[in-house]
Amino acid sequence: MRLKEIKLAGFKSFVDPTHIPIPGQIVGVVGPNGCGKSNVIDAVRWVLGESSARHLRGETMQDVIFNGAGERKPGHRASVELIFDNSLGKAAGEWSAYAEIAIKRVLEREGASEYYINGIHVRRRDVADLFLGTGVGARAYGIIEQGMISQIIEAKPEELRVFLEEAAGVSKYRERRRETELRIGDTRDNLQRVTDIREELGKQLEKLQDQAEVAAKYRSLQDALSNTHQLMWFVRKQEAQAQGARLARELERILVETEAENARLADAQKRSESLRVEFYAANDRVSKAQGEFFQAGSEVARLEQQLQFLRDSRARVQAQLTQVDADLQQCEAQLAQSEASCEDWRAQLTQADEHSHGLAARVAAEAERLPVAEARFRDTQESVRGARDELARCEQERQVQATRREHADKLLQQLEGRSARLQQEHAALVAPDGAVLSGLRAESTEVDRELQQLRAALERDEAELPGREQTTREAQQSAETTASRVTALDARRSALAALQARLARGEHIKAWLEQHGLEGHRRLWQSLRIEQGWEDALEAVLEERLNAVAVERMEPGQSWWRESPPAKLAIFSAENGAEAPRLEPWQGLQPLLAFVRCLDAAVAAVVPEWLGTVYVAESAEAALELRHQAPAGAILVTREGHVFTRHSVSFHAPDNELHGVMSRQREIDDIGTQIEAEQAVLNDRRRSADEREQALAALRNRIASLRFEIDTAQERAHGLELEILRLSEQADRTTQRGAQIEAEVAEIGTQGGQESEHRSAAQAELSRLEAVRAELTQRMQEAEAAYRLCEQEVAAQRQALQEAEKESQAAQFTQRTCAQRIEDLQATLQNLAQQRARLQQQRAELEADQARFDEAPLVGELQGALSVRSEREQALAQVRDAQQGLENELRQIEQERLGAEQRLNPLRDKTNDLRLKAQEARLTEEQFEGQLAEAGADQGALRAQLEKGVRSSHLNADIVRLNEEIAALGAVNLAALEELTAARERKIYLDTQSADLEQALDTLENAIRRIDRETRELLAATFEAVNRHFGEMFPSLFGGGNAKLVLTGDEILDAGIQVIAQPPGKRNSSIHLLSGGEKALTALALIFSMFQLNPAPFCLLDEVDAPLDDSNTLRFCALVRKMAAETQFMFISHNKLTMEIAEQLIGVTMQELGVSRVVAVDIEEALKLTEKQAA
Questions:
Q1: What sign for the dihedral angle of Cα 944, 949, 954, 960?
Q2: CA pair distance 857, 868, nearest whole angstrom
Q3: The pTM is what?
């Protein structure tokens, strides 16, 4: 691919949309320092995927957006587009079909970068993949920036290996290897997770085995604990009943004592109220006398305060008069001083006026002489400037002619050497074999066809993968949901079965049943089933017979006839009776027996006998209406269990442990049916999930295999493409180069004649200009002498004028100072006169105020007020004594009342306490009664256990012991068996998954080894070729010497590369001992050696010739011109010799500060303009 054009907008200093055409093979970019030339190289590196701001000479990636300059506002968007000519179809992948490829990168200030190829939004990786293995990229050797030459040659061995990999075209192998390593990492993570799950599952299986054993023990302890709790509640209930009776007797005694104390308290309160009325009247008399006393005291205080204020005011006026006299004396002194100062400043002002007038005349005279001297100075200055300009023009023309002569000499030498090299190159040209090229093209077409088939298969499988994964997850979730339902149902069934089993064991008569060998016999409810809704009806009719024990026969000699059981118990046998006839419906009512189903023959013979006269009614109202019409001995029962006969009704309530036994048994049967159905569904779903997981694993393995085959095919296709490209380009280059060499040789002859003529003309013009320069030099020296004399005269005149102006300004300042001081003193005199008048007026007012202060009238009033206050104080003492007597008597009676109340309070508190305790005993009795009823406890059986010797004092200890044993069991899993089965099935599935993952891991590791083997072979071949080219190119650039590359390790995949270079005549031990120019040439030799092996489509060079002298620059230019046959070059340079090899020059300017623009530079027009100026 060839770079055709670069488009920039908003990128760094290129704020305006800029198009840079690149029509030729060698294009130079020129311009002054700081104009933005290197930004063109940065733009190419940026659009190729550079993500480091440091490599773009910035701090952040936002720095590539124009940041404002002068009146320009900062930009918000930067974009760069590279347009390539792909008419030969050498682009990689699907882009080879396009004749032109445009790569674009856009960055918004608020967002991330976006990449486009031919207008299609792509990833950064897609752009990198397009140039993989071509030497072009953000960090590849196809772009060499400022300072990069020294960095390459001084780089670490590991860093140089990156350039070798790019030259070998193994970048794509490295990328594929990285992807495979990521897959290996994912597979190992998955395998590790599966292994961890398997280990955890194994531990879980062991735990579940132990939990199943613990669950049985837990149920046994729970049953014992429940019975002990019921015994404890029964004991507490009896204790509460006894406590309540005792408290009722004590409360009655306390109430009698309380009534007697209440009578004594009422008498004391009556006498207290009578005295309290008299005491309140005495209080009123004391308050009145006290108010009159306080009024007299207030009057005395008021008069004393007025007298003190009069005395204080008189003293204050006297002090103010003294201060005013002192202020008047000070004011008179200041007036005299200010008048004297004013007279002195008037005299100084008169002297300053006279001096200022004399200096003004002197300044005017000096100012008239200065313009005359300045006019003479300007005339001489203009003469000197004219002479200098003529001499500079002559010198410039002389340098131009000298440069042209030197340029012509160098160009003639270059043309001779170039002609010899071209003829030698023409003789060495060899074309490749066409048959080999045709065979490679046919093989490449076949590989591309296979690759398309593999990619189509991969796309189909990858499109199918998300759906397979989703269906697999759904199947697994469905199986887990069903398993959870089965576990929950089984746990519910186990809990219900435990309740039924405890009822069947008959804990309260268990010992009696064991004693008589009846503990294992079936109960009646275990052999009965009834339709839903009629369970309470059956329980109400059968009552304790529902829990009847079945025996084969009942005979007088059996032991249980002689010893009655400790609780109610029914025993039945069907030995003497056939099945009773079933009742027919009566009055539309069905017999209860019609809703009952018997599970064995014995029960079928007994139950009809017990239910033979029982009919069902849908409601109590219907039963009430029909009971009078019922046959003799008939019973009507409702759904709620209410029993109606002709003369009675019995309302049903759940009052014993048999309540709910039928509904629980039916629920157990229903749950068993549900579990069977759910288990069948669970097995189907687990089987479906396993099948889908196996299919998903097979699909993933097939995708991995296809990816590996695609990678292999791509590598093979790329190798064929590179070989075809190399041979095709070699054939084209051979033909093109032959014609080009012949044309260049002819052109060299023409250029040599023209340059000889140019040299002769430049030499003649140079001799003429030497004579002119000598004459102009003499004229300029004479003009400079006159200029210096005039300059001294003007400087002296200006100095005199400045001194006169300074003295005049000083005199004027003295005038202004005197006038200002006089004005300030006059204002001060006026203020002092006003202050004196104000003080005199203030003194007269104070003397008038002093005459008004007389204290005699106030002293008389004060004596009268003191007499009145003494009389009222005596009257207040008398009424206070009377009040104190009443208060003492009232206090005595109040003490008697308080004593009665104090005796009542303990009685009241005790009464309340007894009532609370009685209520507490009643609540306690009700609480334990409720707990016993809720637990369905048989209180008669509990009473019998206590009577048999169960000690209530040991019950708490038994509860603590049982709780400790239950707590010692820890968490109990009642569904351990089901979980154990599910865990075993899960482990089998995980074992299969682990085997599949290990197989996939082996496949990926084999792929890694194959990639490493092929990469190692390709790198070794590339290293040998680059080393050979480097050894050949180094002497051609240096004119001798030797250089080579050395591996720093035995394994080429991770070994570094060390450069050893020795220019002619030097035996340096390290490359760091070379000069800057030698290092630059060595680096260029290394880079161009890689180009010969794997030529990049284009190469960008940014001032790489800066450290080179002229001779080395000529060698560099010759090498670039030679390699331009295969690679397109764009360089930035300030060296004229480098500029000469460019076929086109692109000028970059910055006329507007901070804004770069591109200008066209026509080399032919530039040469014509130079020749015209020289003529």
A1: negative
A2: 18
A3: 0.37
